[in-house]
Structures are given as structure tokens and as C-alpha cells.
Design goal:
24% of the residues are buried. This protein has a single domain, classed as Rossmann fold. It has four helices and three strands. A three-stranded parallel β-sheet has the order 1-2-3, with helices on one face. With 104 residues, the chain is an alpha/beta fold. It is 46% helix and 13% strand. Helix 2 links the parallel strand 1 and strand 2.
Length: 104
Amino acid sequence: MLGIDAIVMLYHCAKVSVGDILEVGSYVGGATIAMAMGVRDSGAEKKIISIERGCRVDLPRIGTKDSFKDLTKNLKRFGFLDMPTLMSVAISIATVIDLPTAAG
């Protein structure tokens, strides 16, 4: 869970930055929503591409049964469902480790 200082920083960076934004690991969308607000308030045309693999996290305050489902639900609740391009990526660390072996 992000603190208010991180949320404000992400909002500001998205507002003043030039160019598109790539977010890897959106979880349930706190940072995504902050950046979407910054892009909206900048008045500039920028894209946000958010990548989330979708996972279950069993923690009392920030747990989720499906992070990708909760991400889309939260974006919709804040009115930003259409702003970021969402990508659900199913890749494991074992797959990444095996890539050089498979390549040759």
C-alpha cells in the first residue's frame, strides 16, 4: 500500500512529464489512479500502459483474491477504466530463467 507521499509524487510526475508512462506491477491500481489523475490534469495527451500479472495476496489490509480483477474494478470506480491500456501478463520467474537456455 502506497503512502500519501508516494501517491502525490506519482501524480506530480505524471502531470509534468513529457511522453507516455509504462507501469509494471499495477497491483490493485493505487499508483495507476494517481498517475491517471496527473495525466488528466496535465491537459496533455499521454498514454499509460499498465502491466499486471494478476495474483492472489493474503494480507489483512491489502490482500486480494485477484489483483487484475480488483485493478479494473478500482479504475472503473474512479472513472479511469478507459485511460490506461491494461495488460495481464502471465509469466513466472522460472520462464525468464529458462529463456537463455531455450534460445541456444
